[in-house]
Specification:
The chain is α+β, with helices and mostly antiparallel strands. It has a domain at 31-87. The chain is built from six helices and four strands, in the order ααααβββαβα. A four-stranded mixed sheet has the order 3-2-1-4, with helices on both faces. It is elongated and about 80 Å long. The chain starts with 7 loop residues before the first helix and ends in a 33-residue tail after the last helix.
Length: 226
């Protein structure tokens, strides 16, 4: 330490190391000073589920996380190793493209978000043409929260929605045991009943099959705004 003019503690530290490579400075487990653990988990789940670019993720998540900035989002994605979208090249099969639809065709799905407090559910709806995305984080994905998210989606989208495609989850299906319960009607039935309040049916909308149409628990959702 005298020869090099450094602290003896530094010499003792380097003697215990197996390599001479410099290590990263800062905390061993870096975390955001702006985002909570739940917000970070939601951001990671949204990115992995949608594979949208950085700016599209920012615009979709800001209504749920108002204090989210572009730099904070980028640092969050970097910490979790998903700041760069996967590239398809070489012998890897190309990703199949969706059929082209007119703007207003939304795909609605639910992603699980694992946090320190437990499991949460993230509703995600993306327009297949414009890539406009709407999200909402809830504690449980049931018929009630599905209704709430559907209303949130209709208010958030600035243009007409003509179709919403879902899977066969029980949140979207009409089941006999739920007919006399709260939120007994499926969202499509509700939209037909509430057409006078600004939600109108698209006359040219066709019935859209779900992923497993034989199960009979999926529904098309031809909606729109005048």
């Amino acid at each position: 330490s005298r020869e090099l003019g450094i602290n003896p503690k530094t010499v003792a530290k380097w003697r215990k190391r197996e390599t001479v490579e410099d290590r990263k400075t800062g905390p061993k487990a870096p975390r955001s000073t702006v985002l909570s653990e739940t917000e970070e988990a939601m951001i990671v789940a949204f990115r992995r589920h949608t594979l949208l670019p950085l700016d599209d993720c920012l615009y979709a998540l800001q209504p749920t996380v108002p204090h989210l900035t572009r730099s904070a989002l980028h640092r969050c994605l970097q910490r979790h190793g998903i700041s760069r979208l996967p590239e398809v090249g070489g012998d890897k099969p190309k990703r199949q493209r969706f059929k082209r639809y007119p703007i207003g065709f939304f795909h609605m799905d639910i992603a699980e978000v694992q946090t320190a407090e437990g499991k949460l559910c993230l509703f995600v709806a993306i327009d297949r043409t414009s890539k406009f995305a709407v999200t909402q984080l809830v504690e449980k994905a049931d018929r009630r929260t599905t209704w709430v998210f559907l209303e949130h989606l209709l208010e958030a989208v600035p243009y007409r929605i003509h179709t919403i495609l879902t899977d066969n989850g029980i949140q979207f299906a009409e089941q006999p045991r739920n007919r006399n319960a709260a939120y007994a009607r499926t969202p499509v039935a509700s939209c037909r009943a509430d057409a006078s309040s600004g939600i109108v049916m698209s006359p040219s909308c066709a019935m859209i099959s779900a992923k497993r149409p034989r199960c009979g628990s999926s529904f098309p959702l031809p909606l729109g705004r005048p």
